[in-house]
Structure formats: C-alpha cells, structure tokens
Specification:
With 360 residues, the chain is α/β, with parallel strands linked by helices. It has helices at residues 9-17, 160-169, 200-205, 208-219, 235-243, 271-275, 332-335, 338-341, 346-354; strands at residues 2-4, 34-40, 46-54, 63-66, 71-86, 89-102, 108-118, 121-132, 140-143, 172-175, 195-199, 223-227, 248-250, 261-265, 280-284, 289-291, 297-302, 312-319, 322-327.
Length: 360
C-alpha cells in the first residue's frame, strides 16, 4: 500500500541547503551547533561548519578561530561569493568553512564553544561529544562523509535521530571529512570495519583507489551501504561504478514533483524487514535500483512512482563474501530525522541496513 505524503516546503529548503552555502548576508554558523553524540575512545571524529559575511574587499577580511582544548582545527578556508540579493542586485561577500577533529584519546563528556570572527561577523558554535571506553564487541562503522558538515543544514538538531541511533545501537563510528581531489578513504585499513556508509560527496569524490578498496572490502566480507539519488548530481553514476558486476544498478531518475514524496508500508518490504518489525518508510526524491541478476540481488523496499514495478528504493546484492546495499537517498541523515521520516521507521530501517548479518 502506498499513500502520498505532503511535500513540505521546509524539507525542500533543508535539502537545497546541502548544495549551496550562504543564501543571505551574515548567514551562519551552519550547522548552528555540533552535537556529535556518542563515540568511542580512539575514534576518528571530524566535522565542519560554515558562515558568511558581507565584505567590500574579501582579501582584507579578518578570519579568526578559537577552539576548546578537545577540538583540533584541521583547516579554515575563506573564499569570495555572493551572500545576498537586494533589489535584484547581488551583494558580494565571503564564505568561510572550519574543519575540526575531536580528541578521543580518553573517555568523558566534553562540551565547549568554537569562537569565530569573520569580518564584522562574530559567532559561537557549541560543540559536545560523549567519548566512551572502547568496546571490542561494538560494531565498527565508517561514515565516509561526516554528516556534521558545513553544507548539510543550519539546524544542528537535525542530527539527533542519527546520534540517538548510534547511542542506542552502541556502535563504534568513525566520521571523515571529504576533501575534493584527495582519496576519500585515505590509507585506512577497511578490514577494521563491519560496515562502510558511502553517501553524497564521498561517493562523488571517490577516486579509483577508493572504489577498488571498497570493492575489495565487500568481497572479503564487509557490508557497504551506498546512499545516492538523482538529486545529488553524479552520485548515481559513481554508485554504478561500484555496483558493476554485482547484479544491481541504480537509475538516475526521480518521480515527478507531484509524487516524489511517498510513504510505503510493509506490503512493499522484503520479508527480512517485516521480520525486523519495520512497518513503514518515507522517501523523498528517491531514485530506484534495478535488479539485473536475481540470483545475486533483490529488492528490500519497492520503489513507487518511478522506475519499473520490480525496482526498489532499497536493494541489496551479494558481492563475494559480503553485501552491498543501494539506498536511493543521498541525504541519509535528513532522511531519518524527525522532519524527514515524518513518524515512519526510517531510522529503524537504516539501523537494519548498517548492521552486518551476524549483528542483526
């Protein structure tokens, strides 16, 4: 059974914020806070935030960053751009992005503020994290592009559904910041992870080295969850370079505007999801996946209003000893948020997808 969800203007606004920084003068900081939830000792935890200001001469803008002891500033960049539109005239200014990492060498609850000055704009960004002792039994997950980044949302509360999920599942999560032109996975040993989540910019930025490493990771027994859709340009194209040969292919398309927000119930689910108690899921601008080899791949959640009758918004394929999942939502952190899920089981579904078979 399928029922239409109303297309909420606020949701669209948040989605568009992921691909464009400042749209108004003195914008920021965004996210307005970095509540990073629970992580483990030794975890890599990277995040970023952005802000902007009107400036007559961007080259002369003063940019300062002051961070608490448990926060290391990895990078701070300033670049010119339009920051407002007044009477059809673009107002020039500057945008700034600050990339940070959290010191996770010892357990504890850490809270503080990052103080930033950009030209005439002063801001404070609250940062909080709970670092728990290492747990050898915890499932280790690599989020190849940290959701806590400057192009995600202005509202840091959007991430609460995700941080609550991590805490409840007792996962050991690493978060990476993505730098265009550099390998996304760096020199990480992927065999340390049970699951890799590869979304958005991490997917688009993935190098040949990254792709080869991910395919090897899966074929040796890992689980890879690829989050992509038509909305996030080139993400479907890059997803298919990884999926090639696994009996699964994503389609670079989305439903018409009048039907691109849908909620499906368990009649559209595979038996695994029904058994897991997942009763409903909501999708917004989702792209479908086609099963090319039914012996290797299958649909977990059927697609609606786009693609063929046998296509899926969520599909899974065997790849060597492991599995690869195609999730037709690039902005996964928003997809499971209160605004994105609209009371459905999106977070529960994501938990199922990120948990390797033995853990489920």
């Amino acid at each position: 059974m399928i029922r239409f969800c109303s297309i909420v203007a606020a949701v669209l606004t948040i989605m568009l914020a992921s691909v464009a920084l400042a749209q108004s003068s003195n914008r920021g900081p965004g996210p307005d806070r970095l509540a990073l939830g629970t992580v483990r000792v030794g975890a890599t935890v990277e995040a970023s935030f952005g802000l902007s200001d009107v400036a007559k001469d961007p080259k002369k803008v003063v940019f300062t960053v002051e961070a608490p002891d448990f926060v290391k500033v990895l990078d701070k960049s300033v670049f010119p751009g339009d920051v407002d539109l007044v009477d059809d005239e673009l107002i020039k200014g500057v945008h700034a992005v600050v990339v940070i990492a959290i010191d996770t060498n010892k357990p504890g609850t850490f809270e503080g503020e990052i103080k930033v000055t950009l030209g005439g704009h002063a801001a404070k960004v609250p940062v909080s994290v709970v670092v728990k002792s290492a747990d050898a039994a915890a499932i280790r997950i690599l989020v190849a592009e940290s959701p806590f980044h400057a192009y995600s949302t202005s509202d840091g509360g959007t991430f609460k559904a995700w941080t609550d999920l991590v805490t409840d599942a007792k996962w050991n999560v690493d978060y990476l910041s993505v730098t265009r032109g550099k390998p996304v996975l760096r020199d990480l040993d992927l065999t340390r992870y049970g699951t890799v989540l590869l979304p958005g910019d991490a997917l688009v930025s993935a190098t040949e080295q990254d792709i080869n490493g991910l395919r090897a990771f899966v074929e040796k027994g890992g689980r890879l969850v690829i989050a992509a859709n038509h909305f996030f340009g080139r993400s479907v194209e890059k997803a298919n370079t990884i999926l090639d040969g696994y009996g699964l292919k994503m389609v670079d398309a989305e439903a018409p505007l009048s039907a691109n927000a849908v909620t499906v119930d368990d009649a559209s689910f595979g038996p695994e999801l029904v058994k897991a108690g997942i009763k409903s899921a909501r999708f917004f601008r989702a792209s479908p996946a086609v099963i090319a080899d039914a012996k290797r791949a299958k649909v977990l959640v059927k697609a609606a209003w786009v693609g063929g009758t046998d296509d899926g918004f969520v599909a899974i394929a065997r790849a060597g000893k492991g599995e690869v999942v195609a999730l037709g939502q690039s902005l996964w952190w928003h997809w499971i948020s209160t605004d994105g899920a609209k009371g459905t089981d999106n977070a529960k579904l994501l938990r199922f997808l990120l948990t390797p078979g033995a853990g489920r």
